[in-house]
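Hi support team,

I'm filing this because I wasn't sure whether my run with WQD finished correctly. The job status page said complete, but I'd like someone to confirm that the output block is well-formed before I use it downstream. Pasting the exact inputs I used:
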Amino acid sequence: MAKRVLVSGGAGYIGSHVTVELIEAGYEVVVADNMSNCDMTCFEGVKKITGREDIPFEQIDCCDAAAVEKLFTDYKIDAVIHFAAYKAVGESVAEPIMYYRNNLVSFLNILESSKNHGGCNVLFSSSATVYGEAEKLPVTEQTPRLPATSPYGNTKQMCEDILRDTVKATAAYGAEVNAGAQQLGPVKGIALRYFNPIGAHPSALIGELPRGVPNNLVPFITQTAIGKRECLSIFGNDYPTEDGTCLRDYIDVVDLAKAHVVAVSRMLDGKMKEDYEIFNIGTGRPVSVYELVNAFEKVNGLKLNYKFAPRRPGDVVAIWADTQLANNELGWKAERSVEDTLAAAWAWEKRIAGK
Ligand code: WQD
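And here is everything the job wrote out:
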């Protein structure tokens, strides 16, 4: 029987792309989402792309321990991919308690139920933000994490540590489950540290749906191009880089989604080398903000209204991934060009604008 993967936060931007790839790889999925930062657009898109009308969807909040327990009782879950979290850096500085409560409690509940139901394989959605302003580039998984500069970043570091400690503590638990009864079992874990996920599915049926003014660069670009925003501000052109703008590792969301499928298969097929593993998920290719804006204009044949503006507080100058571990161990590599990704982002923006 096909293995079942619980995708928490599966109706959101990355979760919906991952759900598609899991189904296309032959996995059964159950999507859980409290819909706090999305609507049904992407879940409907997932059903269209996969031709599967019957994907189980549970509207629950993972901070509700009883609801998470019920999920693990109702479905036999072989692996969890945990996305359900708040993700706006600035908001986390203003509302730290809300961020710590939501991001930590939901993950604790997932881990608790995982160990109580005979053990589970847990993939945590982490971020390159854990590296901060790294001294040496590109960053490898061994590059030391620096103290987080926002509560959001701190929740990513804390959840990585909670997963590591849980894996260690549960390693010796027996894995047999008595019918209907709870049985402690080992939790195995992988943390994927994403760089900057951008773009949309080539079908333009799923993509990013930011609420309010976007914080991230690509949705701001596409919303400016469509006329929803007047002008893009490029934050800082006096950085110590070739063109003065920041460097990032922009990874296509479909490539990113595929990395999850390989990581989940690695866990389910017993291929892990350690019970807790960390992988950088990026392209290994630094691209400046200015280059990205130019590439967007060129590939989509339009002019973008932009201006140079002061630096944004908290931005690191440059970060990109050393992807060797993911390439060699997972056998995964980012494939899409930045141009194709920017064309997909634009197709998605036009679709949601009805143009
Ligand atoms: C990229 C570059 C900006 C907007 C953040 C989080 C990270 C991760 C992804 C979240 C920077 C510049 C941006 C704009 C601009 N997790 N920019 N004008 O800051 O690298 O990473 O998002 O979900 O944890 O920190 O991504 O897209 O905000 O910015 O010039 O209007 O674009 O200064 O150099 P960032 P981003």
